[in-house]
Amino acid sequence: MEQMKAAGFPEGFLWGSASAAYQIEGGWQEGGKGVTNWDTFVRIPGKTFKATTGDVAVDHYHRYKEDIALMAEMGLKTYRFSISWARIYPEGKGKVNEEGVAFYQNIIDECLKYRIEPMVTIYHWDLPQALVDAYQGWESPQIIDDFVNYAKTLFTRFGDKVKYWITLNEQNIFTSLGWLTAQHPPGKFDDQKMFYQVNHHAFMAHAKTVLAYREMGGKGEIGASFAYTPSYALDCKPINAMAKANYDDLKNYWWMDVYAYGRYPIAALTYLRKKGFAPDMAEGDEEILRKAAKEITFMGVNYYQSCVCEYNPIDGVTPYGTMNTSGVKGSAQEVGIQGIYKNPANPYLLTTDWDWSIDPSGLWFCCREITSRYGLPIIISENGLGAFDKKTEKNEIHDEYRICYLKEHIKALGEAIEEGCQVLAYCTWSFTDLLSWLNGYQKRYGFVYVDREEEEGGTLNRYKKDSFYWYQNVIRTNGVELFQE
Questions:
Q1: Residues with active-site annotation
Q2: What pLDDT digit, counting tens, does each position of 61-83 carry?
């Protein structure tokens, strides 16, 4: 709103950065860790950019003290990281791997030594392969109890030191890429019925985990993190406005309404029942979802881009267009659901080399919408720019484009806070460079450059980018300097 001008951020605001176990740790066969679905998937020819794997990643498993010391030098207030289920339970259940517990206890203690608040993601896509072999993982309701058992182990071992818990990271992404587009494990294509059933199992795992945390006496903050892509109607033509409403119900509210209200959006559920895709629910599931919704304390948001919605004719584009995983700008294809919506490019926005729209206002928009629709505090659990960073002969990395991206997004976040949105934390993606799932190591996100390419064998040395010093100053001034320019 025009009359409101942001001046800074609240006292105690958690300036942070984020990572995921598979993308940074490496040590895939060390410390008693079991094999994960990703360890298996990346060995299928053609699944990842230049056959990159997380076997070594950026070796955080051996270099976590060095990395956390750099976080302390920057001044981070929180570090969001995920725990690999297979490090705690190599077989997904059964006997606890004490070496894995000790590894994460060391990370937590190292963070606390520097007064960095650990923010733990319980599940960031790496599932023990043993559970896939036993019952197809998320496809079976058996996973719900196994997930809750794993989560309760984390609460028991780390609950006295961890105050922030994220149950699931981007449930909408790992399920859609796993069961609709075959780009993530288990690599299934257009399995619509199973896609929605898998999501229901994940919702139940989340809900029962939240309830278990409270039953165990957990007093901290707990919720899920959702990959939120806010939408704009192409124009004021009613059919395009309805396309936006349909997109929101099927692509955004389907997840956020369950987290916050404990129920599915009515129009979307009705549509899916007519199509035969609606999930089967066991007796008592709806009550459990509603109870859990009353116990979460934030909505986690991973924000990267917005989208445009236009009516899609019945013979229009499908959801299965080519995704840009190479960094060749313009190679992504338009997608949508036939007869419902499609997502054309926004002519008013620039894009990254991976064809993601750059829209700081979208972050402001999504915070306003969450605040008005759900009345929940917000944690921005991911926001960042993937780019082709280059190191000079003097070991300098001049990433002014990342500084510009983050600056504008943080300023938009400040505007949302000024308008009444309660935002607890802002975590960039990511602290160090890391493996970008399908995009390899060339797509760099970090404040810290890691010396490695797609092939193994780099030094893995760390080098601070220009953005490192910029974010350090943002944290030092609590964002005030951004609004004095």
A1: 382
A2: 999 999 999 999 999 999 999 99
